[in-house]
Design a protein that fits this description.
Elements lengths: L1 E14 L12 E7 L2 E5 L10 E10 L5 E8 L7 E9 H5 L5 E6 L12 E9 L6 E10 L12 E7 L2 E4 L10 E9 L8 E7 L7 E8 L1 H7 L1 E7 L16 E13 L2 H17 L7 H8 L5 H14 L3 H14 L13 H32 L14 E2 L6 E2 L2 H24 L7 H17 L8 H20 L13 H18 L4 H6 L7 H18 L4 H12 L6 E10 L8 E10 L3 E5 L7 E5 L3 E6 L2 H4 L4 E7 L5 E7 L3 H14 L9 E2 L4 E2 L2 E2 L13 E2 L5 E2 L8 H14 L1 H10 L4 H6 L2 H12 L5 H10 L31
Antiparallel strand pairs: 1-4, 1-16, 2-3, 2-5, 4-30, 5-6, 7-16, 8-9, 8-15, 9-12, 10-11, 10-13, 13-14, 17-18, 19-20, 19-25, 20-21, 21-22, 23-24, 24-25, 26-29, 27-28
Helix pairs in contact: 3-17, 5-6, 5-7, 5-17, 6-7, 6-9, 7-8, 7-10, 8-13, 9-10, 9-14, 10-11, 11-13, 18-21, 20-21
Length: 816
């Protein structure tokens, strides 16, 4: 049994931000910190006081995290970025919103005395004395203190206060991981009600000392316990009055905390077997559970349910069969061909998730080069006459205003070139399309053609495929390339307009150039020749895509499975030590790294032959490095063992905080099951004769900070976690349990018998008599939700009970 916590974060937009630049605007972006550790950085939105980001993230965390904070920053090219304000949500606040926190939150001023982080290790004892008891406080060490100095560190000392007396430790220079091992004693007053206060401070020579946090202890409680030792989280100074919240603007957020208790795989087998059995039988079988899930799922959570089901069936090798079942169910209730797959049904949402999981790399290969070209050219493109901006053109000294007709014609030429290049790339990519995607589209094409035969519906199977491929996959990626990992930054206004017009053209092609799509925006007419040509190309592409035989498909899939696909790849800078011996001076060399499920490799260029660098099984930790170590805040270390079993460390530099966290996340995910993972590490480097972080002189000294192997970012190419997906589906079924029970009760005439006698007593013998076969699985699930189930859903003989997959997580008990 494992406890897992995750944060679903959507940073929507900001409004009424203060102007930080002399132009009267700002260049805002957001930094997301979990317990003061930067996890996410949004893109910068230039020259605005009401930025829109619309970025979504999911962060997996240990259940012990305390708070998540959103800092709105103003980016400056020539100076340090300005802090506009922040919104802080504690774990308790998020836990009080089961459906998630959603809405506008006022930004508050960032007070240095509240920006505390880290923990302090203390031992407190009440020592008996001849005349009076004494209170002994041992200040051992601290970790992850806030860096307050320009060198990326602090000069910490500790001040212990009790009953009007104050004692201080020595100062540890240039360290956020100090070790003191100093003990102080105070005479314990019998009637004194004062608390013991332990404060950490950063010593400064010429300015006032900076506050690093404090811990307050109840002396009366210490009297009872006699001794207390452990790591205590430093708290901010709450003595100051609340600051004004109304003049820094607001931030719209959607944040949801999800805590899951994931049980061993065997506990979920009955539920997984039931779902898989229903999918294998298809729409012609007696299964009703998946249709019931669709009927009882609200619009707000349908995407989450669809994603969980899809990942579960991907892990079982039944993704194509699951989607085929959903296709058939939707086709049964659709009478008009022009409304097919246009709603946000479970089939549509599942197919969207499927394309993101299975087809994202394919999308990057097709759309990526076109997107890059649009960003690089930054051409002014507009087809709507009501929005055309006339500008000056010509050589130096010979400027003339460009006419509206010239702008429209030039824009049409640019869009025709981009659209033609995109469609040409797509038409040549039949073999590049992932095998499972091709098989799914082939099944969709056949089902739609069977449902809508006849010449009047000859385009319907093609439109069914393009409704997902073009309208729900390619077009959204073109309009918002950052959300599909195609770009690191949002587009500026000019580029965004070009992408929007290109996405509209792709939608027209996907709609097979129907009169209805042409009538919506008549000013798109200049693109019609390219659109009509694109329709022919797209139909030819789909015909080839669905024509590949299954045997050929399987052969290709086996060939591809022999190649370990990269989990993550890209350029990184690897540290090189100059000279021999301890680290004295260093440089970083740029190489192209590739992380697969076997090893971390590198090459000089992406196309060069790769050399194995670190075997995956040898990785012991992947963590951040202190900024002061190399003068950069974007350096990570991979701690591993070489072939001789000796510990080694590789230092790799990333270009930004997002890239750093993505690499750390990928490395942690692929090595999470390694034996010998470290529980602590040194966030600094061994320079000269000591560690730069804690100043210890033993190179093999235990680490001064704890590792964070459970902190990861969820991405489209994550390894599947079957148990977690089964738990999420189970949790959803608990929420719709009343609907399941109501369906069973409404489908039988012996309602009183159901209410008076436990279901499991008569289910094995009477269920086949009471219920039609189509509802047997539903009744079986009802038994399971009653916490008592037979071993097999279709058995007519009594079966011994097994440990039920449905456990009451509220009580923490296992029902048998």
């Amino acid at each position: 049994m494992a406890k897992r916590s995750s944060l679903s974060i959507r940073i929507v937009e900001g409004k009424n931000l203060p102007a930080k630049d002399i132009t009267g605007s700002s260049d805002p972006y957001c930094i997301v910190k979990v317990d003061n550790e930067p996890i996410i950085r949004t893109a910068t939105v230039w020259k605005t006081l009401c930025p829109f980001w619309g970025e979504e993230y999911q962060v997996h965390l240990p259940p012990t995290f305390h708070a998540v904070a959103f800092y709105v920053m103003d980016e400056d090219a020539l100076s340090r970025d300005d802090v506009i304000g922040k919104v802080c949500l504690t774990r308790d606040t998020l836990a009080s919103h089961p459906k998630g926190f959603s809405g506008w939150a006022h930004l508050t001023e960032v007070d240095p005395d509240e920006e505390v982080q880290g923990e302090i290790h203390l031992r407190l004892e009440v020592v008996p004395g001849p005349r009076a008891h004494r209170l002994r406080c041992s200040v051992l060490e601290a970790r992850d203190l806030a860096p307050k100095d320009r060198n990326g560190a602090s000069d910490p000392f500790v001040r212990v206060r009790y009953n009007g007396r104050t004692q201080e430790t020595s100062i540890v220079k240039k360290s956020c991981y100090p070790r003191w091992n100093e003990t102080f004693e105070f005479e314990l007053e019998e009637r004194a009600a004062e608390a013991l206060c332990v404060e950490a401070w950063d010593w400064d020579l010429v300015s006032r000392n900076d506050f690093l946090g404090k811990v307050v202890f109840n002396v009366q409680r210490l009297r009872v316990a006699q001794q207390e030792e452990g790591w205590f989280r430093l708290q901010p100074d709450q003595s100051k009055s609340l600051r004004d919240k109304g003049n820094l603007g607001s931030l719209q957020l959607e944040v949801r905390l999800r805590d899951e208790t994931v049980l061993p795989s065997g506990c979920y087998q009955p539920l997984v077997q039931l779902l898989c059995h229903e999918v294998k039988l298809g729409a012609q079988g007696p299964g009703q559970l998946i249709p019931l899930i669709e009927e009882t799922t609200s619009t707000e959570c349908r995407q989450d349910v669809a994603t969980s089901l899809l990942k579960l069936f991907l892990g079982q090798g039944l993704a194509k069969d699951f989607l085929d079942l959903l296709f058939q169910l939707e086709l049964r209730r659709t009478s008009e061909a022009n409304t097919l797959f246009r709603s946000n049904s479970l089939a549509s949402k599942s197919m969207e998730s499927f394309l993101k999981v299975a087809g994202m790399r394919y999308l990057h290969g097709i759309v990526g080069p076109i997107i890059d070209k649009v960003f690089e050219e930054k051409k002014y493109v507009e087809l709507d006459p009501s929005k055309v901006e006339v500008k000056d053109v010509g050589c130096s000294g010979l400027h003339r205003p460009q006419t509206e007709a010239e702008v429209l014609e030039q824009s049409a030429q640019t869009l025709r070139a981009h659209l033609g290049a995109l469609l040409s790339s797509l038409s040549r990519s039949v073999r590049a399309c992932p095998a499972v995607v091709r098989a799914t589209f082939r099944q969709l094409f056949r089902r739609v053609r069977e449902r809508f035969p006849g010449t009047q519906h000859e385009n319907v199977p093609f439109i069914a495929v393009t409704s997902f491929l073009c309208l729900r996959f390619f077009s959204p990626a073109i309009m918002s390339p950052k959300l599909f990992y195609l770009r690191e930054r949002h587009a500026d206004a000019r580029t965004s307009r070009t992408l929007l017009l290109l996405a509209k053209a792709v939608q027209n092609v996907g709609n097979m150039d129907t009169p209805a799509s042409r009538a919506k925006e008549a000013w798109m007419e200049p693109l019609q020749p390219t659109v009509r040509q694109g329709v022919a190309q797209l139909k030819d592409f789909i015909a080839k895509l669905v024509d590949i035989e299954e045997k050929e498909e399987l052969d290709l899939q086996r060939t591809l499975s022999l190649q370990a696909p990269p989990v993550k790849e890209g350029p990184l800078f690897i540290h090189r030590t100059k000279g021999k011996g301890p680290l004295t001076s260093s440089s970083f060399k740029k190489l192209h790294f590739s992380l697969t499920t076997e090893a971390l490799s590198f090459a000089k260029t992406p196309s060069s032959k790769k050399s194995a660098f670190i075997r995956l099984a040898n990785i012991r930790a992947a963590e951040k490095v202190e900024e002061k170590s190399f003068g950069s805040s974007h350096v990570m270390q991979v701690i591993y063992t070489d072939d001789a079993g000796r510990p080694q460390t590789a230092y790799l530099q990333c270009k930004c905080v997002n890239e750093l966290n993505q690499w750390l996340s990928a490395l942690r995910k692929v090595s999470i099951n390694n034996s010998g993972l470290l529980g602590s590490y040194h966030p600094g480097i061994f320079r000269g004769d000591k560690w730069s972080c804690c100043h210890q002189k033993d190179r093999t000294d235990r680490g001064c900070d704890k590792t964070r192997s459970r902190v990861t970012l969820q991405e489209w190419n994550d390894p599947l976690d079957h148990d977690l997906e089964a738990q999420l589906i189970y949790r959803h079924l608990l929420g719709v349990e009343p609907a399941l029970r109501q369906l069973i009760e409404n489908c039988v005439s012996w309602r009183k018998l159901f209410l008076r006698v436990p279901l499991y007593v008569f289910y094995p013998r009477l269920c086949p008599v009471l219920l039609p076969p189509v509802l047997w699985p539903v009744a079986w699930l009802g038994c399971r939700l009653s916490h008592s189930i037979p071993a097999h859903p279709f058995s007519t003989q009594p079966q011994p009970h097994i440990v039920c997959a449905t456990l009451s997580l509220n009580t923490g008990t296992t029902h048998k």
